[in-house]
Design goal:
about 350 residues; Aspartate Aminotransferase, domain 2; binds ligand TLP; Aspartate Aminotransferase, domain 1
Length: about 350
């Protein structure tokens, strides 16, 4: 059966153009800096983020890990949101592998961190305290519903941080979604921060990889860290080739996924037993839960949906996440609405 796979945009498979580019990619040893395709991708990525340099890494998780470690020494503190991907879903890497202490602040419903909260969290110069070194932001924000932050917000936090000698790292796994919904360039969002990671392998459909971008000096440090983490990938141009096609052909179409997310949310809103939160999806993610009257748990609903050819993501005992991407068309959206209508009782 052909599944409508809404579990994540990470499930996207490469397009035929990507496979062709991969087959024909010119390659070299990237640990020596000699892979022309990786070098080209890194230059393109840095330019799009408004940074001096880029570093191709295996995943968003590796980008955030090397990204944070390049800012912090062991024992330093990084301010993170309590719903941040880096805090929740990266296996505690910054603390386990980097010795970086995290200070978790409540994410506001829109995914932001309050400036007053950040200000109050900065440690005094006291030998009892770790040294506050870094603020981590996420845009779009996954667990806050695919919400996005404006360039004004990115500017405000960065100016505040720089005024206090702190750096800002952005988990921009889906920064091109944040740019598409605001009809701006990604560099307007990433410009003010010190470093940014974005993913090629989510809504942009490339099979593997992310790029960490920042200043020349910062990327030089991150390059060594990537090696330390086992991420020196040699003839990685085969992968980078798909990333180049992703940047050339996929960033301009993401608003189609946002429109389908709204269509899906609209349809599901009519299904008795479902609550949408938020009611209107900000970008490509639809979050919903079962009302107290519904007897089934999420796991049962998910099993039943499979029989209709629908794969849904589970976020809790009574909640789901549905993510729109390149491989979900209008028919898939209609099929999903019908299936939820039949299954939820
Ligand atoms: N997110 C995945 C899961 O890990 C939850 C998903 O299905 O959404 N930052 C953000 C904001 C992410 O959403 C993800 C992946 C990552 C980083 C990590 O990227 P990868 O999976 O490439 O390590």
């Amino acid at each position: 059966m052909e599944f409508v796979d809404l579990r994540s945009d990470t499930v996207t498979k490469p397009t035929p153009a990507m496979r062709e580019a991969m087959a024909n990619a010119e390659v070299g040893d990237d640990v020596y800096g000699e892979d022309p395709t990786v070098n080209r991708l890194q230059e393109m990525a840095a330019e799009m983020m408004g940074k001096a340099s880029g570093l191709f890494v295996a995943s968003g998780t590796m980008g955030n890990l090397a990204g944070v470690l390049a800012h912090c020494q062991r024992g330093d503190e990084a301010i993170v949101g309590n719903k941040a991907h880096t805090f929740l879903f990266e296996a505690g890497g910054i603390s386990a592998l980097g010795g970086v202490h995290s200070c978790q602040l409540p994410n506001q419903p829109d995914g932001s961190l309050g400036l007053e909260d950040i200000e109050a969290a900065i440690r005094p110069d006291d030998p009892h305290d770790p040294i506050t070194r870094l603020i981590c932001l996420e845009n779009t924000h996954n667990r806050c519903g695919g919400t996005y932050q404006t360039p004004e917000y990115m500017n405000r936090v960065s100016e505040f941080a720089h005024g206090r000698g702190l750096s800002v790292h952005l988990d921009g796994a889906r920064i091109f979604n944040a740019a598409a919904v605001q009809e701006i360039k990604a560099k307007e969002i990433a410009g003010p921060v010190d470093s940014v990671t974005f993913c090629l392998s989510k809504g942009l459909c490339a099979p593997v990889g992310s790029v960490l971008c920042g200043s020349k000096e910062y990327i030089r440090k991150a390059h060594r860290l990537r090696k330390m983490l086992g991420g020196g990938m040699r003839q990685a141009g085969i992968l980078a080739a798909a990333g180049i096609v992703a940047l050339e052909t996929m960033t301009g179409r993401l608003s189609e996924d946002h429109a389908r997310a709204r269509k899906l949310a609209n349809g599901l809103k009519q299904v008795p037993g479902l609550i949408l939160d938020p009611e209107v999806p900000a970008t490509n993610m639809v979050f919903l839960s079962l009302t107290p009257e519904v007897k089934s748990q999420t796991s049962e609903v998910v099993e039943k949906l499979k029989r209709y050819g629908i794969l849904a993501g589970v976020t809790g005992q009574r909640s789901f996440r549905l993510v729109l991407h390149y491989w979900i068309d209008d028919a898939g959206v209609e099929k999903t609405i019908t299936a939820f209508g039949d299954v939820v009782q």
